[in-house]
Amino acid sequence: MDAGQFRLVNRYSGLVLGLSGKTSRLAETTPLRSWTDTTGSTVGEGRTAAEQTLTFTDAGAGTLGGIHTLAASGKNLDDPDSSTATGTPLVTWAPHQGENQKWLFTRQAGGSYTLTNAHSKLCADVEGGSTAAGARVIQWTCTGGPNQRWTAAKQPDGRYKLAGVRSGLLLTTASTSDGAAVTHRADTGSALQLWTIG
Questions:
Q1: How far apart are CA 117 and CA 138, in angstroms?
Q2: pLDDT tens by residue, 154-192
Q3: Among candidates 61, 127, 64, which has minimal Cα distance to 90?
C-alpha cells in the first residue's frame, strides 16, 4: 500500500472510522454524509474532514528498491562461491562487497519484494514452496511466486525482519559463523533474524 491519505469506510454500514483530538471520543465511526460538517448535527456529529482522514505510513520497506546488502549479526546474505546454479542453498558470510552478496530489491504488488542476486540473477526462494519451519532458502529462477516474495518490516533500531509471503516465517541465519545456513523460521526475537539493509 502506498503512503497517503485514505478514508476507512465500512462497506456494509457506510460508516467512516473517525479519530478525534478530544479524549471523550478518540476513535469511533461516524455517518458518511459530510466531510465538513462542523454544526454538531446528529448526522455528522460535528466531525471535520481532518478527523476522518488518516495518513498511512508504510511500516515496511517502501523505499528499498535497488541493490542492497543484507547483514544479520555482522554476516552478509551470500550466494556461496558465486554459484550460478539453481538450488544453491544461501548462507551468510563475512562482508566483502562481492556481487554475490548484493541483492536487487524489486517491489511487488502488495508491498513485498523479490530479492535477486546481483551475480547469479537468481531469486531468494524458500525451497519447494515449503511452509515448514527450517526449510532452506535457496536461489532459484525468478518466478514471482509467493515463496520468492518477502515483506520487510522495519524495527525500532532500524533493522528489518524479512518474512516469506507464503509462509509468514522469518529469514534466519543459523549462526554468526561463515557459511551458516539460511532458512525461514518462526519469530523468536533472535538477532539472527534481524537484518541490516545497506
A1: 11
A2: 999 999 999 999 999 999 999 999 999 999 999 999 999
A3: 127
Give the domain 66-197 fold: Trefoil (Acidic Fibroblast Growth Factor, subunit A) (2.80.10)
What residues does each domain of the chain span?
A: 4-56, 66-197
133 close to 122: Cβ distance less than 8 angstroms: no
The grid coordinates of residue 164 equal 516469506
Query: Which residue positions in the chain have pLDDT lower than 70?
Result: 1-7, 10-14, 19, 21, 23-63
pTM: 0.70
Residue with cell 536461489: 139
Q: Which amino acid is at 125?
A: D
Query: SS3 breakdown of the chain: % helix, strand, coil, rounded to 5?
Result: 10, 35, 50
